[in-house]
Amino acid sequence: MVLVAITDGELGLGGMTGNLISATGMDGVLIVTPDGAAGELTISDLALAIPGIELTGTFYLLTSNLPTAMNETVTVGGVQEHYFLPAGPYLRISAGDATLEVLDVAVSGSLVLEVRGEGASERVTAVANQVDFDFGDGLGSLLSLENGSGRFIFQDSGVAGVGQVDIGVNALGASLGATTAFAFNTAASGVSENLDWGSGQELFEVPAGPFFEVVAENLTTTVPVAGVTQELSGTFSFAQSTAEGDPYVAVGVSDLEAELAAGGVGLSVTGGRGAFIWTADGLAGLAELDTVNLTGVPGVSLEAIDLALELNNTGADVGPRDVRISAAAGDTITVEYSGAYYHDYLAVSGGARLELAGFADLSGLLRIEHSDTDPTRLKVGAQELSLTLEAGSLPVLSFNHGEGAFVLGTTGIAGEAELAFEVGLIGLSGEIGLEVNTTGAAVNTTVNMPDGGS
């Protein structure tokens, strides 16, 4: 056995156009045996040749090409040192306290860097454990991401990573906590490669960047808004974003499910897809809906034409702002709320048809919310309202361009509207007042509207 002392050593790893990682100021010992060599060296300075990426920590070089593990105690400079190194071959750079700065996010934990593959397929990779994420002062008060693990690939064009992490919420009084997937990529091109991570070939796949997102499937959260605690379920993605210098979390959502419940009346929505802006002030956004289902209102059903769940509990105007739904290029939705009515606001809004069994259909731009005055009812504001009167299944008379307000309860629907009509055959036109009440009792209530009417 021969000991080789190394002082102020240097090492370069990876890269197609030069060393991707440069280690300098290395000190330590290589133990040479007839079967090969193994050793451990401290690294004074480690540099990445990737623009915008920083890697800091206390690093060690571990290497061996021995067929068996090394477990030796040797004397170096009068000091006994114990070396235990697993069987090779490998060349690794290890740190128990590394921090990788990517896209203004600090990723901290234990890190083991290693060259995998050969020739043109050679890649510098990293396996990370006990990982925490720090979004900085602007967002650290909102999200906590900790106790994660992942795998990273370093290339000349950037660094990409995937893994799992525990997510928690430190704002809104929301109930949110789960183990979620994370992914990031600082490069403009995606990564799709099969690599041997020590347990066989595995596909490493990340879309084009730059992006950093956390995706939580089958997640349920609650949001206080408009006097209720609203439950939202679905697949949520969280990504750091900035608008006019102010940081926020862009929350993309798919497969959204929710229910506006009022007493025995329920409006459930499914298949929602959209995005929300999340700041320390609250949450604001919308999700376009696939289906809606109105229950608990006898003789009344709701057909969705173009509905969205809209929410803002920030207490202020929001946007207009294009907010990312996913990491896919151009996958955004515009969020805008203007006016005091929308500062604490929850509604299902858009094109829809209310079917009153047996005699009429009401269709138009509907806004369905919790009632301001009765917790057992939902209120409906209507614009561009059309009314079709039916005889059995046959339409006999239509009215259009109306506005009105209605309430939905367990006894039926009640409300008023003003509509225009025109009968071309006899040249008759004008306006009518519509009153609807299927509840079986007098209804006297106020329905507040965005324009201040009621």
Detailed description of the structure:
The chain is 0% helix and 70% strand. It contains no helices and 30 strands. The protein has strands at residues 2-13, 21-33, 36-48, 54-56, 59-64, 70-76, 79-85, 90-102, 105-116, 123-134, 143-155, 158-169, 177-185, 191-196, 201-206, 211-225, 228-243, 246-262, 265-279, 282-288, 291-295, 300-312, 318-324, 332-337, 345-356, 360-370, 378-391, 394-409, 412-423, 428-437. It has a 24-stranded antiparallel β-sheet that branches. It has a two-stranded antiparallel ribbon with strand order 6-7. A hairpin with a 2-residue loop joins strand 8 (90-102) and strand 9 (105-116). It starts with a strand and ends in a 17-residue tail after the last strand. 37% of the residues are buried.
Could you give a short description of this structure?
It is built from no helices and 30 strands. It is mainly β and 454 residues long.
